[in-house]
Amino acid sequence: MAVSRSLRTRAKVVVERLAAQYPGTPKQLCALHHDNAFQLLVATILSAQTTDERVNLVTPDLFSAYPDAEALAHADPTRLEGLIRSTGFFRSKTKSLIGASQALVERFGGEVPSSMEDLVTLPGVGRKTANVVLSVAFGEPGFAVDTHVGRLSRRLGFTASSDPEVVERDVEALVPPEEWGALSLRLILHGRAVCMARKPRCGTCVLADVCPSAHLFDPAPL
Ligand code: SF4
């Protein structure tokens, strides 16, 4: 999309203010506990439709039982389902975890690849998961779009789309690549703490003076 200069300026301010509010690298900002790219990939697959806290409760036992792609590729599905049941959608997640691990072993020497092109060929891995792995595990540009990131990107006027791929492209056109990973994670933190879906706290938001949606959600005066 064509990007106006004022929109770029506002995006720059948003990047700077959120960086001050939520400091840290993508690795430090990521709430999913992990020690390496494989563990992050597994945790991110598990995080679909559940909370990071819930995932962090199951991953210690999971990583201890299956420390690498080779081990997880040969997992007994029933045992694996038992370990991840509390994260929901455990049958399809079991298929994804075993399928992705088999693909890692068969096509990537058991290692997690570091390109979007390769990552999205893994079962259960879409662009959101791939962008998390790229930015957090490899320090590469990657703007992951989840429900918070999509909502905030629209409220901030960075995109008009509800299609995650379009949101990704629109925001990437506005922000330098080295900021993509941290910005995505900061938008998630801001979406949870301040810019919630139903009642955003515009009165306390550090972005209010550059946000076209500020106070749109305030209750009408009596
Ligand atoms: S000003 Fe309100 S709508 Fe805009 S980002 Fe902040 S909380 Fe969200």
Task: Give the structure's gist in a few sentences.
By secondary structure, the protein is mostly helical. It has 12 helices and no strands. The structure holds iron/sulfur cluster (SF4).
The hetero molecules present are: iron/sulfur cluster
Return residue spans where pLDDT drops below 50 for at least 5 consecutive residues: none
CATH topology of the largest domain: Endonuclease III, domain 1
The description of the largest β-sheet is: none
CATH architecture of the largest domain: Orthogonal Bundle
Total E-strand runs: 0
Written overview of the protein:
It is a single chain. This protein has twelve helices and no strands. With 222 residues, it is mostly helical. The protein folds into two domains: 8-27 and 143-210, Helix-hairpin-Helix base-excision DNA repair enzymes (C-terminal) (Endonuclease Iii, domain 2), CATH 1.10.1670.10; 30-137, Endonuclease III, domain 1 (Orthogonal Bundle), CATH 1.10.340.30. Helix 3 (37-46) runs antiparallel to helix 9, helix 6 (77-84) crosses helix 7 (90-108) and helix 10 (147-155) crosses helix 12 (180-193). The protein is elongated, with a radius of gyration of 19 Å. The chain binds iron/sulfur cluster. Iron/sulfur cluster (SF4) binds at residues 152, 155-156, 194-195, 200-202, 205, 207-208, 211, 213-214. Iron/sulfur cluster binds next to helix 10.
